[in-house]
Design goal:
The structure is a homotetramer.
Chain A (H helix, E strand, L loop, with lengths): L2 E10 L5 E9 L8 E5 L7 H13 L8 E4 L4 H5 L1 E2 L2 E2 L22 H8 L4 H20 L7 H13 L4 E8 L1 E2 L2 E5 L13 E5 L7 H18 L9 E9 L5 H17 L15 E4 L3 E5 L4 E5 L12 E6 L10 E5 L5 E5 L4 E2 L4 E6 L3 E2 L1
Parallel strand pairs in A: 3-4, 3-7, 7-11, 9-10, 10-12
Antiparallel strand pairs in A: 1-2, 2-4, 5-6, 8-17, 9-11, 12-20, 13-19, 14-15, 14-18, 15-16, 17-19
Amino acid sequence: MRVEKQEVKVGELAAGQALSLPVYRFHGKGKGPSVYIQANVHGAEVQGNAVIYQLMKLLEHYELLGDISLVPLANPLGINQKSGEFTLGRFDPITGVNWNREYLNHSLDIAAWYAAHSELDDDSLVAAFRTELIAACERKLDNVWGVTTGQWLATSLQAMAHRSDIVLDLHTGPKSCKHLYCPEYEREAAQYFSIPYTLFIPNSFGGAMDEAAFVPWWTLAEVAAAHGRELGVRVSALTLELGSQERIDLADALNDAEGILAYLSYRGVIAEKVLPKPMKRFGCLLKDYRKFHAPKAGMVEYVGKVGQPMKAGDVLVNLLRLDLYGTGEELTALKLPEDGVPILHFASASVHQGTELYKVMTKVFAL
Amino acid sequence: MRVEKQEVKVGELAAGQALSLPVYRFHGKGKGPSVYIQANVHGAEVQGNAVIYQLMKLLEHYELLGDISLVPLANPLGINQKSGEFTLGRFDPITGVNWNREYLNHSLDIAAWYAAHSELDDDSLVAAFRTELIAACERKLDNVWGVTTGQWLATSLQAMAHRSDIVLDLHTGPKSCKHLYCPEYEREAAQYFSIPYTLFIPNSFGGAMDEAAFVPWWTLAEVAAAHGRELGVRVSALTLELGSQERIDLADALNDAEGILAYLSYRGVIAEKVLPKPMKRFGCLLKDYRKFHAPKAGMVEYVGKVGQPMKAGDVLVNLLRLDLYGTGEELTALKLPEDGVPILHFASASVHQGTELYKVMTKVFAL
Amino acid sequence: MRVEKQEVKVGELAAGQALSLPVYRFHGKGKGPSVYIQANVHGAEVQGNAVIYQLMKLLEHYELLGDISLVPLANPLGINQKSGEFTLGRFDPITGVNWNREYLNHSLDIAAWYAAHSELDDDSLVAAFRTELIAACERKLDNVWGVTTGQWLATSLQAMAHRSDIVLDLHTGPKSCKHLYCPEYEREAAQYFSIPYTLFIPNSFGGAMDEAAFVPWWTLAEVAAAHGRELGVRVSALTLELGSQERIDLADALNDAEGILAYLSYRGVIAEKVLPKPMKRFGCLLKDYRKFHAPKAGMVEYVGKVGQPMKAGDVLVNLLRLDLYGTGEELTALKLPEDGVPILHFASASVHQGTELYKVMTKVFAL
Amino acid sequence: MRVEKQEVKVGELAAGQALSLPVYRFHGKGKGPSVYIQANVHGAEVQGNAVIYQLMKLLEHYELLGDISLVPLANPLGINQKSGEFTLGRFDPITGVNWNREYLNHSLDIAAWYAAHSELDDDSLVAAFRTELIAACERKLDNVWGVTTGQWLATSLQAMAHRSDIVLDLHTGPKSCKHLYCPEYEREAAQYFSIPYTLFIPNSFGGAMDEAAFVPWWTLAEVAAAHGRELGVRVSALTLELGSQERIDLADALNDAEGILAYLSYRGVIAEKVLPKPMKRFGCLLKDYRKFHAPKAGMVEYVGKVGQPMKAGDVLVNLLRLDLYGTGEELTALKLPEDGVPILHFASASVHQGTELYKVMTKVFAL
C-alpha cells in the first residue's frame, strides 16, 4: 500500500516559523467510502495522535477499498501553547475563541440550491454539493480583509474533510471516560467503536468539526426528503472522546484504533471483517447531558467516578474550605441532582465559584 | 444628595475570597429616568473607572431627577487576572469565554407575552415586562445544576441593569480612538457624548450588555407596533469605548464624564442644562465595520492613525520580517482595501498570521 | 484545647480585595517545641490543605505540649491564578519568580553577631538570635521603596515561621511519589513521616522556606562549634512533597497527617506516643538528584513509574513524533542514563525540547 | 560586501517545528574587532529587530574592518508566546525563568587557569581563554541528562557571542526611556550611542548576556593585573534598552542604528568616522538604581515621565481606588522618596500590592 505524506501550511508564527500539518494519505482501491481522521485540534488532547499512529500501523496489514487521510497534530499553535506545566490548547490565547468553534457555518440556502440542482441524478447532486462546500471554504480563506488565525486553521481542515464521506475528529475530555458524539441519523455507528457511552446530537451547528461536516448534508437530505427524494445523509461525522487529556498511552491507543477499524470495516472502507469489542454500550440525548457547576469555591475531592452510574443524592464532590475550619462549613458534600453517569470532570482540584465540575449523562439508555 | 454604597457579591475565588462589587447609588427626586453605569467588565479596560470617579464628583453639584447607580470595577476576577505585565481580562482564563458575551439571552416569547398582557396600559405593561426580565435573571441564577463563573457575574449585573431606563457600559479598545455603540433606534444619543465616532447597531443579540439591555425592549416595541400600539423603545443602552486599555488619565476622564453628563441632561436625569462638547461627529453602520487581519506573520509598525480617515491603498501597516532579510520580502507595506477610518488597532507589535490588526469604519457619514 | 483563628493580610489585588491567610493556633502547655506548618505556597499543590485539615481534626484528641500554628492556603494569589483548566500557581504570573524562591536571605554576619553575643547563655543566645531574624523580616517589609508581591507574602510567612522550633512546608510534585527534603543535620527525622524517599540537603540557601528557616541556625551552630560550643541546630525545617499536584484525597491526607503526628510525637510536641508507619525508607543526597530533560520535542508516554527503582538503560519515556511517521524516528525510547528511582515527572504529555521530563534519585541508599 | 545568512537551530516545539535563528554575517577585512549583536531575547522587546534592520541597511554603505554577526529574533519561543493581546515573552511560560537569566555562569577557576597559561603571550592567552569559554558552552549543551529549553537557547547564543570582541544585546523596557547598561571598565562607551542614560555595572554575574560575555574577561584582567600584567578587559559587552516594548518604529530605529554605528566607528570596526548624536548624557551606578513598588493595590495614573528628572516628594503616581469612594482614600498620590530620574514604569494601569511601578535612577551625574 502506498502511503503519501503531504505538508499543508495552516499558519505562520510571529517570528516567521511556518505552521504546517502532516497529512498522511492511504490510497484505497476506489470502491469504498473515503475517510478523513484528525486529532489534537485542542492542544492538550494528545491521545488521538497515538491512536492515529496505531491505526496507521494496523492499516498496513489491511486491504483498503476507500482512501483514508489522517491528520495528527492538527493544531500546531494549540499544541505548542504552554502555560505553566500544562498545555493551554483549548482556545486561541489571544482571543479566547475555542479552536473547535471556528469551522465555517455554511451560509448556503440549501433549499434554493436544491431547487436549482434537483434535476441532477443522486451521484451528480452529491458531487455538485460537495464541490459547493469546498468552494465556500476556499472563498472564506480568499478575502481581502483576511480571516482570523483560528479560521485559517479550521477552514483549511474543513476543506479537506469535505472531500471525504466519513469524518472522525479525535478529542479527549479533561478527566474523562471514553465517549462518542454521534449524529442521531446514524445511531448504529455507536456499536462499533471501543467506546461505552454515546451522545446523540441533533442537526444543529455549534461550530465544531463534526457539525461542520454533517449539518449541510443532513439538511440536504431533509430538503430532498421534503421533495419526496430519499437521498439519505451522505456524510458521516463523529467526534471520539478518547479518555483524558495530557495522556499518551500506546496500549490503550491500539484498543481505540481497533475500534475505529471495526467501524471502517462495517462501512466497507476495508475489505476485511473486523468485529467491534464486546462491551455494554449506552446512549444519551444531547439535551439530557448536564453540566454541574461549583455552587461555591474551594478545594475539590472528585468522588464521582467517570463512567460509573450514580443515583440522585450520591456524593459527587467533597468541597474543602480551610478558611472556614471550625464553622461547620469546612467540608461540604455536593450531591448529584439526578440519576446519571458522570462522564468527565474538571482537571484542577481547586475551583472558583461557577467552575464546571462535572458533565453528567442523565436519562441514559442501553444501546 | 445622599450617596449610598452597597456591596454585591458576584463570585468566590478558589482560596475562599469573596468577589464583590461596589455599587454607588445617587438618589434622584423620582421625576427622571433611572440610570445604570458600569465599567471595567473587561479587566484591562480601566479608564471607565476614572470616568465614573469624575462623574461621581461632578454629580455632587447637580440636581438629580432620576436615580443613578454606578458600578466601577465590575469584573473583579478579570481585573485581577494578570499574565505577564498586562491584564488578561478579556475572557475567563479557564474557558476562554469573553466576559462580555455571558449576558442572558432572554428566551421569552415576546409576541406571546405581549398577547397575554396587551390589555395593560403603557406604564403597567412596561412595569410587568421589566419584572419579567428581572425574574428571568433570578431564575437563571437559581438552578440546581448551577451556572458558570461568567454567568454569575453577567446575570447579576444584568439584573441590576434591567432596573434602569438608561444603561451605559464603559469599555475601551486595545489601542483605540473613542467610539460609541448606539442602537439604531436612538441615533440622536450620538450627539451628546465626548465621542467623535459612532457605530449604529441593529436589534440583534450577540451576548453584550448593551444588547442584553435593549433587545427585549426593542422587540417589545416592534411587537406592539405590529399591533398598532406606539410604545416606543423604553430602554436605552449604549457602550462607550473610551480610548485605549491599560490607561488611566484623570483629565481625559473628566472630559468623558462631562459628555455623559450632557447626555443625562438631554434625557432629563439632571435638572441642569449641560451642553455637549462641540466636535464633528461621524457614524457607521455595524455591517460596514471591517476587521483587517494579518495576511502574514511578522513585526508590525502601525502606520494608520486611529481616528484619522484614510484612502483605499494607503499604507496601514509596515510588516517587518527579519528572517527574510535580503529576499526583498523583509519589509512589506499592507494597504487599506477601502476608504475608511481606522478606529482601533492590535496592542502587540508582533503578530501571528490572522491576527486582527485593525478595525476600520467604512462608508462613514457625518452626523 | 483552644484553637484560635487569626487572619493575616499578605496582599491586595488590583480591584481592591484583600488577600489574607487563615492562621490556626493550637495552644500547648508550653513544655514542648513550637511548630509552624504551612501548605499550598505553590497554587496547584493543594493536598497539603487536606493534610492540615486531617491533622487539625486529629490534634483535637491529643495533649499538646508545644504550640502548633497551621497556615493552609498560604498563597491565595497563587491558588486563585488559573490558566486554562489548571492552576498556574508556581510563579508570580507577572514576573515569573517562583513563589518558593522569595524568602529573605538573611544578610546578617553570623560570625560577628556570635562574637558580640557569645557571653549569653544558650537560651538567651537562642532567644536573641530568633529576635534578630524576626526583626530582619520586619525591616525588609518596612521599606520606603517597597517590596515585591512575592516578598510581601514570603517574608510575612517567614516572620511567623521564625517564631517556631519546627517548620514544615507542605508541597507536592507535578506527577510525583511522596518525598521529603531533610537537612543533613537531622537525618533521623526521615524515619517518622509516611514518606518513603528523602533528599538530604546541605547548608545552602536557594530561596525556599525550609532553607530560610534552617540556614541561619545551622550556620550559628557551626560558628558556635568553631568556638567550641555545642549549641546544636535549634530549628528543624523540612519540606514534605505529598504526591501529585491538582489532587485532593482525604483518605491519603489522613495517612500523611498521621506521619506528621508521629514526627511531632518523637519531637515531644504531643504527650502521646505515636509510631511511624512501617515502610522501607530510602535516602539520596541532593547532589545525586538528577533532572532528565527532553533531548527532542514530541508527545510523551511516561513509562518510568515514580517511586519504582530502574536500571540504567531502562526505558523512561516513549517519545512519539507523528510528523516523522515512516522515517523510523516516529517512536523513540529514551533511556535512563544511570540506575535510579524516578521521583516525579512532568505534568503534560507533550513537550518542547529541553523540558524537564523526570527527576531521578541516583545513588539511593536504605535508611 | 558579502552578507552571509545562516540558520542556527536552538529548539524544537512540541508539535515538531524546529526553532531556528537567522544569523547574518557581514565580513570585514580582518583588521578590526569582531562584533556580535542580538535582539529580542525577551519576546515583547521587538524594536531591536528594527534597529538591526536599519543597521544592516546602513552597513551596506560602509567599509568593514571587523566582522559583524547580527541575530535578530533571537528567542523565537518567547516571541511567539502570546497571552491575550500581548507577548508573554519575558520568561519561559512553563518554568517562569527569565530568558535573560539562563546564560552559563562559567565555573572556571580563572586564577588557576591563568597560572597554568601565564607563559603565553597576550594574543595567545586571549585566544586560549576564548577557546576555553566556547568549549565550556559546548560541554554544557552536550550532557547525558540534557539541559533546559532556556539553556539550549542561551548557551547557543553565548557560544556565538564568545567568538566576538564586542557584544551588544538589544532590549527595551516596559514603558521606558532609552538607557544603557555599561560595565564600569568601559565608561567612555556611553558617549557614543543615541542614548541619554547609562547604568554602570560591576563585575558580577546575574545571568544576563552582557555579564556572561564580560565577567570572565574582566576577572581575567584582574587576575593578570594582580600578577602585574596589564592585559586589559578584552571583551566589551553592553545592553541597550531602546525605549518601550511592543513598539516598532522604523524612524527611531534608524536613529539608534546610527548610534551603534558611531560606537563601531569609535572602536574601529568600520573605517569611516561616524560621530555620535549630540545630546546630554547622564550616568548612575547600579547600586543607586531603585525600584519603587506599589504600597497598595489599585488603578494607576503614571504621573512621573520617564527620562525627566524629579525631586523627592514629587507625585510619581496617582492611585485610584473606586471601592473606597467617599472614604477619603479613593485617590492617593504616591511620591518619589528621593531625587531621581524615572527610567521606566510598569506596563499595566492596574496593579496588585507590591508590583514594581517604576525604576528610578538616583544620584545621577553628568557624563
